[in-house]
Predict the 3D structure of the following.
Amino acid sequence: MQAPHLPSDEAARLTALHALNILDTAHEERFDRVTRMAKRMFGVSAAFINLVDEKRVWIKSCEGLTGITEAPRDISFCGHAILGDASFIINDALTDQRFADNPAVAHPPGVRFYAGHPLKAHNGKKIGTLCIIDTEPKVFAEEDISALQDLAAMVEMELSAMHMANMDELTDITNRRGFIMLAQHDLYRCIRYQLPACLIFMDLKKFKQINDTFGHAEGDKALVNFADQMKRIYRESDIFARLGGDEFVAMLSNSTQAHAQHLLERFSQSLTQFNQHQQRGYDLLFSYGIVSVDVNKHHSIEALLHDADTLMYQHKQAS
């Protein structure tokens, strides 16, 4: 049996998945409808919407099998399917060296045929599959592949709607709700694996003055431009958000205080270059507070936010 290797963008892929806050949620008709259609359309034993987490494949929807909610990632077909862009087809698992001795092939449910199409998040990261299985070998024609892709697109539309609920409409970065959910998961992971992590709390300076002097439309542009600079500087695996008003935040996992400070310096330099180029009559400036995760003190993101906000306020008063 061949275990699937990890994608090169694994950290960012997991960030996109966890941002949806969909793992371990109840069944939903909008997803169950698709698996019912897939099972009936292709005449197979079962159809699934599977999401590939760090160590497991979690089943959001299943039609045709009962009593199973997840499976180890290292023996999954879907772990292989997310490594490419095209549909992943196994016509007969018993004749494929990668899967002939796979537990799902050698034991119930006795998979012989598998077809899965990668499901992409809003940013193109592959977070799971729409897949079908059967206990008999099958030949999957081109028109079958096209139909599977069309059904996968329906799932992606629903995932996109979930994503938008966690996004700030103005700046197109994560909102407070999305940040709390995603960063809390990241905090648990860092504590579990004893990884260093930092939270940066930022406040846009003189935002009220920008609104009063140049108008609220220009104030909105200032927020968008500030968020755009964050997109340029922060890593794909970093979780950054607009909490509301002129407050922004970033959660940096596997990062020391020194790394967080270095990142802030790069961010500040990027803003300086932006200000010099734009010359809008005001500069984008910010106050900040950096807090390193203390496992004895920070058991929640709210606790981290409180401490970072306090430090940010002190920095604001001193500057």
Notes: The radius of gyration is 23 Å. The chain has a mean pLDDT of 94. Residues 34 and 154 are 8 Å apart (CA to CA).
